[in-house]
Design goal:
The structure is a single chain. The chain is an alpha+beta fold and 79 residues long. It folds into 2 domains: 1-30; 32-61, no CATH class. Helix content is 43%, strand content 19%. It has helices at residues 2-30, 74-78; strands at residues 33-35, 44-49, 53-58. Strands 1-2-3 form a 3-stranded antiparallel beta sheet, covered by helices on one side. It is elongated, with a radius of gyration of 26 Å. The mean pLDDT is 79.
C-alpha cells in the first residue's frame, strides 16, 4: 500500500516539475530580453530567448511621418 502512494507522489512531483519548466520556457519565449551587441553596431538589435537562443535583426531607420512630404498620386489628383 505504501509503495503505491510513493509512486503516486513521485509521479506528482515529476509532473509538477515538468509543468513548471514548460511554463518558464514559454514565458521566456514570449518575452525575450534585449542583448547589447557592440560588435555588430547600432544598426542591429539582438534578443535572447530561453537563455541560449539569440536572434539579431537589422534595424532600419525610418523617418517620422511628420517629416515626410506628401507626394500626390494619380488617384489623389482625380478626387
Amino acid at each position: 500500500m505504501t509503495a503505491s502512494w510513493r509512486n503516486r507522489k513521485a509521479f506528482l512531483v515529476i509532473a509538477s516539475v515538468l509543468a513548471c519548466t514548460a511554463v518558464a520556457v514559454s514565458v521566456s519565449l514570449a518575452y525575450p530580453t534585449p542583448v547589447p551587441s557592440p560588435e555588430l553596431g547600432a544598426d542591429w538589435q539582438c534578443r535572447r530567448s530561453v537563455g541560449i537562443v539569440t536572434t539579431c535583426h537589422r534595424v532600419s531607420h525610418v523617418a517620422p511621418a511628420s517629416h515626410r512630404r506628401l507626394v500626390p498620386t494619380a488617384s489623389m489628383l482625380q478626387a
